[in-house]
Amino acid sequence: MLEPFHALREAGFSRSGGIVSAAPDRWSADLIASLYWMRLVELARALTANAGCQLAGSRVLIDGSVVFGMIENPGTPHAGRALVKLASWNEWGATPEIIEQFASEVRTARNARGILIAPGGATRAAMQRAGELRVELVDAVGLDDTLASLPPEKSDFFFVVATAGDYTTPTCPVCLKKLSRVVVDTYRDPMAIESERVIDASTIIAEPVQCRRLCVAPRCEVQFLQEVRANEIIIAGDVTGDFVCDGTVTLLAAATLTGSVTARALNVEDGATMLGRTRTLEGKLEPMNLGRPRWEWRCRRPDGRTDCARVVFEPHESGLVNS
């Protein structure tokens, strides 16, 4: 079970004394999405308890997701059970597939409704599916709104607890010790660029995308959390992100692109929609695949448990899906 005020003890502070210093000075959706998984679920549990709900224990899974139960309106004729889950670290947002998987978990709990905390947000298709399956979605924006509705002294207290010490480096879900940054490729071959990537299902892509040709199929809703770079981009679905193209970006009929496009040329067919900033790419673009070394979070404790070696977390370069 996750313990209240673990964050303060982890940082060397106590509830009764000590000075907590933090770089941010107030809540924001970006700050909430940047919290590592344990801090975020502790915040969610604290808000739930503050709302008068009765909490059950938490179950931490190896992917960084956390599940806990609660009773809403306890001791009243309107009392009801709910199963709450924080999305896994490498997902952090919600797609229709994630919603469906969680809904199947909720069905195993007797007479309970489901609440999925997806800090990074959700695609429109995921929100529609959540409504169909009666799953409540909570993202960082929603948590920020809840905190803003609290009395200032209560919101400030939660802020001090959540941002004490290192609140962004994730801990290992197995041993609960801080993970380490591990570089997994220090040199990248320009010739090893993926020749073509075809995306034919709605999804959230957390890692940078670099390929020679990118295609997004019709009726697919895709959120890119990091920069997309290609020599040619063809969009037939609905995409969100920042795109850099050393050639032509083509939006086919009924396609929608939200975000920014930097390209040699932009071709928007009749019926397509471009929402955001566009800029003409001038000059030479640096070779693909020669950027920053890729790294990931891993548990490097020499005395760690066997399952610690299975923990591999991708970095959260940007916490919000819809930022």
Q: How would you summarize the topology of this molecule?
A:
Elements: H1 6-10, H2 29-34, H3 37-50, E1 54-60, E2 66-72, E3 80-86, H4 96-107, E4 112-117, H5 124-132, E5 135-138, H6 140-148, H7 152-162, E6 180-185, E7 194-199, E8 203-205, E9 209-216, E10 221-224, E11 228-235, E12 238-251, E13 256-268, E14 273-280, E15 294-298, E16 312-313
| Large-scale geometry | globular
What is the CATH class designation of the largest domain? Alpha Beta
Number of discrete helical segments: 7
Structural class from helices and strands?
alpha/beta
Distance, first to last CA: 32 Å
User: How is the main sheet built?
Assistant: 8 strands, parallel
The CATH architecture category of the largest domain equals: 3-Layer(aba) Sandwich
Provide the residue-averaged pLDDT: 87
CATH topology of the largest domain: Trna Endonuclease, Chain: A, domain 1
Q: Give me the Rg, rounded.
A: 21 Å
Q: Give the tally of β-strands.
A: 16
Q: What share of residues are in beta strands?
A: 25-35%
What is the count of structural domains? 2
Proportion in helices:
10-25%
Give a written overview of the molecule:
It is built from 7 helices and 16 strands. With 323 residues, it is an alpha/beta fold. Strands 7, 8, 9, 10, 11, 12, 13 and 14 form an 8-stranded parallel sheet that branches. It has a 5-stranded mixed sheet with strand order 1-2-3-4-5, with helices on both faces. Helix content is 20%, strand content 33%. Strand 1 and strand 2 form a beta hairpin. The chain has 2 domains: 6-162, Trna Endonuclease, Chain: A, domain 1 (3-Layer(aba) Sandwich); 190-280, no CATH class. The chain has helices at residues 6-10, 29-34, 37-50, 96-107, 124-132, 140-148, 152-162, and strands at residues 54-60, 66-72, 80-86, 112-117, 135-138, 180-185, 194-199, 203-205, 209-216, 221-224, 228-235, 238-251, 256-268, 273-280, 294-298, 312-313. Helix 4 (96-107) runs parallel beside helix 5 (124-132). The longest helix is centred in the first third of the chain and has 14 residues, at 37-50.
